[in-house]
Amino acid sequence: xxxxxxxxxxxxxxxxxxxxxxxxxxxxxxxxxxxxxxxxxxxxxxxxxxxxxxxxxxxxxxxxxxxxxxxxxxxxxxxxxxxxxxxxxxxxxxxxxxxxxxxxxxxxxxxxxxxxxxxxxxxxxxxxxxxxxxxxxxxxxxxxxxxxxxxxxxxxxxxxxxxxxxxxxxxxxxxxxxxxxxxxxxxxxxxxxxxxxxxxxxxxxxxxxxxxxxxxxxxxxxxxxxxxxxxxxxxxxxxxxxxxxxxxxxxxxxxxxxxxxxxxxxxxxxxxxxxxxxxxxxxxxxxxxxxxxxxxxxxxxxxxxxxxxxxxxxxxxxxxxxxxxxxxxxxxxxxxxxxxxxxxxxxxxxxxxxxxxxxxxxxxxxxxxxxxxxxxxxxxxxxxxxxxxxxxxxxxxxxxxxxxxxxxxxxxxxxxxxxxxxxxxxxxxxxxxxxxxxxxxxxxxxxxxxxxxxxxxxxxxxxxxxxxxxxxxxxxxxxxxxxxxxxxxxxxxxxxxxxxxxxxxxxxxxxxxxxxxxxxxxxxxxxxxxxxxxxxxxxxxxxxxxxxxxxxxxxxxxxxxxxxxxxxxxxxxxxxxxxxxxxxxxxxxxxxxxxxxxxxxxxxxxxxxxxxxxxxxxxxxxxxxxxxxxxxxxxxxxxxxxxxxxxxxxxxxxxxxxxxxxxxxxxxxxxxxxxxxxxxxxxxxxxxxxxxxxxxxxxxxxxxxxxxxxxxxxxxxxxxxxxxxxxxxxxxxxxxxxxxxxxxxxxx
Length: 748
What we know:
The chain is α+β, with helices and mostly antiparallel strands.
């Protein structure tokens, strides 16, 4: 018994604090968030559930503040809209990427993200005005997150500030019911929420009664909270159980299931045992299965968004003449890094709005040069372990191949690709060895065949794609435009293998950039190539396999089926097609900065310029805005203090005190003209017993009034405002005092 009494005492102490209401609010919020996650309206997007929890936190802070309800509502609406736009548009990068770029570069990136979000929102408005469906899930996420945030702020305000959670539960309950109904979730989800809501409503009712008893001086048992809480919990369980049972038995299916449960026979147990312990033999694989090989499957770029080939089986083994990568901790020259190569098989030139058409056979093969600026000879030996159906592989610009492998000219500029039926073959390529300086100085004098094929775009390409491309690419050389677009895509779009298929009749790049904002290599490579073409830079998409992993024992690269990949090649006069990697799941191609011999078509090499803002440390560009905010904040208070002179504070104190005297006189606490303020205060406190907030506010206003009238130093403006705030907070007590005077005391 003593232990039980001790538990009840601790529980009562916990109840007297405000934690039970917050714990119930947290449980309700978690229930709503889990229901939203289970609905999976937008896959891999947790914005809605996160903003629901943020609404709980903001609502708790607002409830503890001194703001009025209207001020708190405006603040919540404005802040939730900003946070929802940030969550959908990613206008500000996450903290882990905040220091990756110099301050000015980060500002430019934020501007581009805001520009893209503006085009995206403009598309929402245009579709709504035209009566068309909005395929962009961002609008749904923004509206649902905004609504969920403010519903939780409303609930928290009413539960913690007003002490009446029942009024706050209405919008949240409607949101929960709609989410459960539309997503066809089990009734138990809503029943559990109902149980928590009933507990919170009971808690609010008990808190309101206890506050009233305390103010009126009514004595009550200390363990009443235990009894009240136990009864409320049992009632909530009963209501929830009835709701769950009725939701099941009230349907024809449930009634039939209930009837069948009564009439089930024991034969089912025997059937189950036979099923569980029946013998099952594993089929022996045939000889054909053992000898079966995988098939080469490249990304289907004819229809962007088609599932990407997957699998762990090895399709290629590749030896190259480059030095092998340096094993970690094995010594050697750490300055020599392994070059990155992709095993190219196909070239795509014509964009259709839904995908790409492969470059066609260009006929005769021209004589290949022995060497070119920005290129070096790379020998490759391929061991093909999968059926390729005539498609072979080579790095970038092949110039010769062994027996069984042929070089075929394709596309407008007669680029070479490897074809044939060989399983083991050798290729020599002029692999990319170009520097940043060479690409910067390559100029823009393109061959006509390259311009015709590398700038092709369909007339149906939406204008907002062109606008975003021009805005992101900006001014500068083709290399600078390529890097900007590559980095923009890598930084602002999510890699996802499970995106939905493209919508019928829509441009797939437009849908990726503005609606889906997630995809895999086919989406990223297509978006970069289209944006570069819209910015006037010849580009194309190529497909094959990524590099794979290096095997030190075999001295070869092992390429699995899952390395199937698509990437971008950009044309630079005098240097040819150069690889770029816009897909964030893969590392970028890095090119050295140094200058080499310039080709005849290139112009003079520009002097390297330091990137704007590169010398600013993170401390400077983080501290400068914070310092600016601090200066503006101090200036605001200085101007405010200059405007609110001491004389004005004194006049405000007199006005507030005399207004309080008039209202109290109307409530029956009048005073003789000869009474001093202190005498009136002491006389009034007796009549204000049971009205603690009203008594406290009168003390504050009296103190400020005495200092304003009888002392040389005027009262502090903050103290006067605090007295006014306390008087407003006692409005309910004033109303009760007036009602008592007019209805009861005044009639005697």
